[in-house]
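Please describe the entry underneath.
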Amino acid sequence: MNMTRRMTVCLIGLMIGCGPSEPSFHELHPGVAESELLPTLEELAKTGEHKEVLIDLMIGLEEGGYMQEAATISQCESLEDPAKVKALARQVAASVKRQQKNKERNTKMATPTN
């Protein structure tokens, strides 16, 4: 009897553990690719509509190494005025553009020319 109980518990445990898993956060929100950060920010600066892209944009900024910009763009969530969202997106886009130019310049300077 004791062995049957153990087998039942093990089978129930396996069935629970083998059930369909929910998608992870990163599967639901893969983030905006670094090559799409500026176009996404520029679109946000035009429309002021942030509901659909905000989380993916923040993830993309963080993964691209733009931590301060990700923190800044997260403020859009609390802004209801589209004009303020647009202004914030323009500010972040300018900062990302500046940093990308600096990265390109540093890469060119670091590349040896033979």
Remarks:
- The radius of gyration is 23 Å.
- The mean pLDDT is 83.
- The longest helix spans residues 82-110.
